[in-house]
Amino acid sequence: MAPVMIDAQAAPLASPAAVSRATGRRRQRRREPADRSAWALPVALACLGLALYLAAIHPLGARWAVPAVLAVLVLARYFWTVWPGWMLALVPCLGLAPWTGWLWLEEWDVLVLASAAGGYLAWSGPHRHAPPPVQPVWRRALRWRGAAWGLMGLAAAMAGLSVGQGVSDAGGLDWWVWQGYSEAGQALRAGKPVLALALMLPLWHRAAVRAPQTLTPALSAGLCGVLLVVSVGAVLERWAYTGLSNFSSDYRTTSVFWEMHVGGAALDGALALSLPFGLLALLRARRRGAVALAWALLLLGLYATLTTFSRGLYLAAVLALPLTLALWWRQQRGLEPDRFEPFPAPGRVLPLETPAVWPGWASLQALLVLVAVGAAVGWQVFGAGGYRGLLAVAGALVALLLQPPSDPALGRRGRAIAWGLGLAMAVPVVALGALAASVWGKLAYLIYALAWAVSVLLARAAWNAAPPWRTALGDSLRAAAWLSTVGMAGVVVGQWGGWVAALPTVGPLLLLALVWPLTQGGRLGDGLARLGWRARLAGLAAGFAAAGRISAQAGGGYIAGRMSTVSDDMAGRLHHWSRGVTMTGAAGGQWFGVGAGRYAAHFADNAPLDERVGDMRLLGGPEPALALAAGRHVQGWGEMFRLLQRVDDAPPGLVLRARVRNPVALTLHAEVCERHLLYTAACRTAQAELPASGAYRWVTLTLGGDGELAAGVGPRRELAFALAVATPGTRVDVAQLSLQGRDGRELLRNGGFDEGLARWFFTSDRHHLPWHAKSLLLHWYFEQGALGVLVGLTLWGVALARVSWGHAAAHPLAPALAGALLGFMLVGLFDSLVDAARLAFLYGTLVMLGLGLRSPPPPAPEPTGSRV
Fold first, then answer.
1. Which of 356, 491, 527, 753 falls 20 to 30 Å from 191 in CA-CA distance?
2. Which pLDDT band holds residue 108 (cuts at 50, 70, 90)?
3. CB of 332 within 8 A of CB of 284?
């Protein structure tokens, strides 16, 4: 039998009392515990001071930012063993640039600083209670060896050199808060993830040294929290702006990532990093409540994946999730199989805490056949029954997977007879259901729900072996209830799409009905009978994922169009990459790069005139003003460079008054739209033709329309005011902006730019290539040169190797880490990813874990005479 794999936290540790006696009374006599570090307190105070300063100058006000810093400080101080993992879930939440105007400074910076301050305060002491004792090296789940420290140090040095080059290339160091993509702040933004990792690494190490049993679950919870945050953000965005079932419009979800205001794939990268942890949570869950939550989390993540319409992310999910599953399966070899008893008898306790092995190949084949048949039937039903028909088929599959096998004494003939009797009983039920639905359509859904509920209840009775349900008659009744469910799925299709349109679905539903006797015995039935409850739930998740993929492909023209343009898009991407390589060589950055955060600025200087993008920046002088320039490319609705501010309301009679000057004639465009980030749902717009003028003057634009914006059922749509120059290659200087409705209430904040760019943001809705290298490898090459690419790939490769087949392969997080690293790199083949600082920090976290995690210790021998 293969060695049993257990988590580090499962290994028995010496009790605090025993350790205290062994090392003991000397430490207790001291006023302060032995793990105090003289350097920890100054680091904590420095981090806290900087966090409070950033909170005090926050554009949305210090009255909420300062208490938030103090709250994180307390959590990090008193939960120092778990907070370094938990805090990862908050990183995607904390990006408020569309409301604040901060670009290179962000709220997650404050989170890291406050977390570091609390962690180092806990390290510096004094403590009310002594911290957990130092654990032996072999018990620590996280330990970096010398080679790993060398690699991480080399990567940090390369990043520091790149930041220095970027600052120098931008004209020198500038700590001013309001900096755009052409200024030194972008170089500093690229260096923040490295500093954040440097602050957090000692805290992770201390948690591993002092409390290894808490580290793995804390990291797992934090990374699952990342998936939850970005998935819920995607669901709410789709619900508000397109509807949850709309896959035909070219609306690509951005969720919580403001960094996508100039395109990019931050959401794709976050999903690639976190989806494997959702799958691992489902595979490792022990109790049914945890399984249900993990299942819901994974389905949310898969839905968010579909809404990105990202072909790179689809590829990453197809390859990374099976890798996670395969590595987890390898870890489970030799463990005791679980049992599928979804409805235990009263008083019976199932061994849910026992780790379960993945089923054998025969059982896996049976499950795959069942899921494939369900997906094929769903494909056929979707065309006529839409999402209602697809959900009805999915519900029938759920009920089928909950069924127990027939009594082996019945044999093949007995199973066929039971199926025939069930079919005979189901036909009149379905006929009556169809008749009732023709009188009142809603009855189709009610009767379907009743048939499904009866099927599940009969399955429960059969699992408990309660007479007379574990007999031939009971099998016939179970078959009748389930076949009625399948038949009513056809009635649902007919009620929704019309009876004539439902005729083509009769054959597929009959095929699904024929699956029943196969699942009750024989090769397929025996394989299903050996499936544990986790495997069945994983099969259900696969079935729902297949259903979602079917609905997205068949119900939406956009995803099909994306798939049909792969070759053309790839040709354009290759041309863009060749420009990036040429641009790097022209700047002399082949070996050490051009500098961090300088891609957009160099592209603007080197691109053909008709591809240069717009820009905005504050002007010097006695009067605050902002220069807003249009790009030289075609200025369509989606291509305009927009100055943006969130507004709370859009009352009737909106009037914009702007104090502007423009050296050349141009068209000024203004709008108030329902907008999450890139796409508009409903707008009030106005345009004005401005003759050339070298002096400031007032311009008035009336944004027509009295209809209410941001109304409707569901999450409220955000409102945003935007100003743009609609004439290519021209510029307007704006000194004052005022937006009011008929009630005379001012809707804009900081309209005179007295507070810099506070509250002001910008977007380039569809013109994205000039802002990104569009490849992680090319991004590394541009910023850090060939040596940077070599170091980056080495870090990634060593981390992936360690968690796949190296020293960390048996760690509980290893399967998900391997899937996450592979998925991130696959998405990174087609997008930069790490130019979003939050995503770079999360990726760096996984690489550091991959370099430092180690396999858990073997189980301790059972003490003599211990009770079982």
1. 753
2. very high
3. no
Partners of 282 in the β-ladder: none
pLDDT at 647 over 70: yes
Average pLDDT of the segment spanning 460-488? 77
Q: Give the type of residue at 454.
A: V
Report the alpha-carbon angle 834-837-841, nearest 5.
Answer: 85
Q: At a CB cut-off of 8 Å and minimum separation 6, what does 556 contact?
A: 246, 247, 248, 249
* CATH 2.60.120.260 residue ranges for the chain: 614-706+715-766
Task: Classify 259 in phi/psi space as left (phi over 0), alpha (psi -120 to 50) or beta.
Answer: alpha
Under a CB-based contact definition with an 8 Å cutoff, are residues 637 and 776 in contact?
A: no
Q: Please state the rounded mean pLDDT for residues 622-629.
A: 92
Spatial separation of the C-alpha atoms in residues 455 and 400, rounded to whole Å = 9
CA distance 443 to 491: 10
**Greater confidence, 51 or 180?**
51
CB 684 within 8 A of CB 768: no
Q: How far is CA 313 from the centre of its chain?
A: 11
Q: Quick one: DSSP state of residue 4?
A: P
Which tokens hold the place of 576? 């863009």
| pLDDT tens by residue, 296-317 | 999 899 999 989 989 899 999 9
| Statement: residue 864 has pLDDT above 70 | no
Q: Which of 797, 5, 10, 807 is nearest to 328 (CA)?
A: 5
In this prediction, residue 336 has a pLDDT band, given cuts at 50, 70 and 90, of very low
Are residues 762 and 616 in contact, defined by beta-carbon separation less than 8 angstroms? yes
Cβ-contact 274, 223 below 8 angstroms? yes
CB 271, CB 256: distance < 8 Å: no
- 3-class SS at 731? strand
**The pTM is what?**
0.84
- pLDDT tens digit sequence for 819-836: 999 999 999 999 999 999
Band (pLDDT 50/70/90 cuts) for residue 549 is low
Q: What is the pLDDT of residue 725?
A: 97
Q: Which residues pair with 719 in a beta bridge?
A: 647, 674
Sign of the CA dihedral with 443 first, then 448, 454, and 456 last: negative
Q: Pinpoint the alpha helices (H) of 440-471.
A: 443-463
Query: Of all residues in the chain, what percent are helix, strand and coil, respectively (each to 5)?
Result: 60, 10, 30
* Cα(143)–Cα(149) distance, integer angstroms: 10
Contact 822, 320 (CB under 8 A): yes
CATH class belonging to 614-706+715-766: mainly beta
Q: Are 83 and 75 in contact (CB under 8 A)?
A: yes
pLDDT (0 to 100) of residue 542: 66
Are 641 and 762 within 8 A, CB to CB?
A: yes
3-class secondary structure, 250: coil
Do residues 212 and 9 touch, judged by C-beta distance below 8 A? Answer: yes
Q: Please check whether residue 767 is in contact with residue 741, taking contact to mean a CB–CB distance below 8 angstroms.
A: no
